[in-house]
């Protein structure tokens, strides 16, 4: 009844005014955009060189805090390759303040998640918890990084675990192909080594090598403490000053450190591991890509998206957008392919990963893939660039769903470039890319460039390097 009366009053109030009365016209107010500083990434550098960066969301009830370290397998020598990953395993096995049982119980009682991972250039330790538990999580992270006991018994137990993990990785063909791709593209260089290291190293790594890696690489100038979610910037800075002031300020200039900072040289070459018990040919082909800081970074991603991905097993396989996927599907040339643009601090790999059980047509598959690369130098339409840009923007924004993903984005960007581009800034950069930019990138980076090839499985019919290399400058 009340709602009807209200509606009636509104209708009467909106009737035309009686003669002689002058009412102001009804106008709709305009919304005023508000740019809240709380939604920006804030950064502070402590006296010892540790960077603290946060993205504060005042309405979030959880937070992710973590430490991103500018040291991974690239900071190792040939003899110590695998040390960074070994340390990641030992991080949760007890500290001077907490036994392994106490550490696990403390995290479980908080309902928090504690994790870590190692890449070629970074090591990351992070925790996700309720906002009120962030101080305890920061204390745990600081304890792990500065006071790990590295007991001999724990080292021996984890040695067996890592060896089993290595065996599992060797069964994953994609991992194997990409490890060999790095090894051939960056021969005899730190970037070409695997993250887990060779089995010989895993079996022989000692406590001395582990402690030396921490001493040489876990320093304040190579670390970023990141917070994302409901943790205010000022609070995380206070926690950093409380827990991380004893970190060494800078890394010693060891031979391994100097080698890790030396620019990697891309080498045109190939490696083939023929195994006819594998029913598919698994081939990765790459040119030298771009670094995180390169002006062409986003152009490389758009160009990669134009080449696209394909998977015959998907229901939308005939309609996956890219010209190459249509051609591959119509002619049944591959089970799947995936274009990629992988970046590092000073270089990268831009290429395609092909999987096919059509073993007598591998040459056709590679030929048409490289012919698509050549086309990018000559003729790119506005429609396919716009499609690639839309896909890329959606991919980037969807990947930032949750505090852990945002913390990952902040840590990766600051540790590699020194600052963080917001999603809005990234969108504007991508929107500005044109088909002319793509063709210019392809002319400089793809046309008649040396390639690295990694092939595993039934690869007898993969043609020799010179034949494949000649396809990099095809005139249609």
TrEMBL record:
InterPro entries: Metalloenz_LuxS/M16, MPP/UQCRC_Complex, Pept_M16_N, Pept_M16_Zn_BS, Peptidase_M16_C
PROSITE patterns (alphabetical): INSULINASE (PS00143)
Protein EC: 3.4.24.64
Catalytic EC class: hydrolase
Gene Ontology molecular-function annotations: metalloendopeptidase activity
Main location: mitochondrion
Span of domain Peptidase M16 C-terminal: 205-392
UniProt keyword terms in alphabetical order: Hydrolase, Metal-binding, Metalloprotease, Mitochondrion, Protease, Zinc
Domain of life, source organism: Eukaryota
SUPFAM superfamilies: LuxS/MPP-like metallohydrolase
Cell compartment(s), UniProt: Mitochondrion
Peptidase M16 N-terminal domain ranges (all copies): 52-199
Chemical reaction(s) catalysed: Release of N-terminal transit peptides from precursor proteins imported into the mitochondrion, typically with Arg in position P2
Coiled-coil portions: none
The protein's required cofactors: Zn(2+)
Pfam family of the protein (one): Peptidase_M16_C
Family note: Belongs to the peptidase M16 family.
Described function: Catalytic subunit of the essential mitochondrial processing protease (MPP), which cleaves the mitochondrial sequence off newly imported precursors proteins. Preferentially, cleaves after an arginine at position P2.
Protein name as catalogued: mitochondrial processing peptidase
């Amino acid at each position: 009844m009340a709602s009807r009366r209200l509606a009636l009053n509104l209708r009467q109030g909106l009737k035309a005014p009686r003669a002689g009365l002058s009412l102001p016209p009804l106008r709709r107010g305009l919304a005023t955009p508000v740019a809240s500083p709380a939604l920006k990434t804030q950064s502070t550098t402590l006296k010892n060189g540790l960077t603290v960066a946060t993205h504060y969301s005042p309405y979030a009830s959880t937070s992710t805090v973590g430490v991103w370290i500018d040291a991974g397998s690239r900071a190792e020598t040939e003899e110590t390759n695998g040390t960074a990953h070994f340390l990641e395993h030992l991080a949760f096995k007890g500290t001077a303040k907490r036994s392994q049982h106490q550490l696990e119980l403390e995290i479980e009682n908080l309902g928090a998640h504690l994790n870590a991972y190692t890449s070629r250039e970074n090591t990351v330790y992070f925790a996700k918890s309720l906002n009120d538990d962030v101080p305890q999580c920061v204390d745990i992270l600081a304890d792990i990084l500065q006071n790990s006991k590295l007991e001999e018994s724990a080292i021996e137990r984890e040695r067996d675990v890592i060896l089993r993990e290595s065996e599992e990785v060797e069964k994953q063909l994609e991992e194997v192909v990409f490890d060999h791709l790095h090894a051939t593209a960056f021969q005899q260089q730190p970037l070409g080594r695997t993250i887990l290291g060779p089995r010989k190293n895993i079996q022989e790594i000692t406590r001395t090598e582990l402690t030396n890696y921490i001493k040489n690489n876990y320093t304040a100038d190579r670390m970023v403490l990141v917070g994302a979610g409901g943790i205010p910037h000022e609070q995380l800075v206070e926690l950093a000053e409380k827990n991380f002031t004893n970190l060494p300020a800078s890394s010693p200039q060891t031979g391994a450190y100097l080698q890790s900072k030396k620019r990697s040289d891309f080498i045109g070459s190939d490696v083939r591991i023929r195994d006819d018990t594998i029913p598919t040919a698994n081939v990765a082909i790459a040119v030298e890509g771009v670094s995180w800081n390169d002006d062409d970074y986003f152009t490389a991603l758009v160009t990669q998206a134009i080449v696209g991905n394909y998977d015959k097993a998907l229901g939308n396989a005939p309609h996956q957008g890219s010209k190459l996927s249509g051609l591959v599907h119509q002619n049944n040339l591959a089970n799947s392919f995936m274009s990629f643009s992988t970046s590092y601090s000073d270089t990268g790999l831009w290429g395609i990963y092909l999987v096919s059980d059509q073993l007598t047509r591998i040459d056709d598959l590679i030929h048409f893939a490289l012919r698509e690369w050549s086309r990018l130098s000559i003729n790119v339409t506005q429609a396919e660039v716009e499609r690639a840009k839309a896909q890329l923007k959606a991919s980037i924004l969807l990947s930032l769903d949750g505090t852990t993903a945002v913390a990952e984005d902040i840590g990766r960007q600051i540790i590699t470039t020194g600052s963080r581009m917001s999603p809005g800034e990234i969108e504007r950069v991508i929107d500005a890319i044109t088909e002319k930019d793509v063709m210019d990138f392809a002319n400089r980076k793809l046309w008649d460039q040396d390639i690295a090839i990694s092939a595993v499985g039934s690869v007898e019919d993969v043609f020799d390097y010179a034949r494949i290399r000649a396809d990099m400058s095809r005139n249609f």
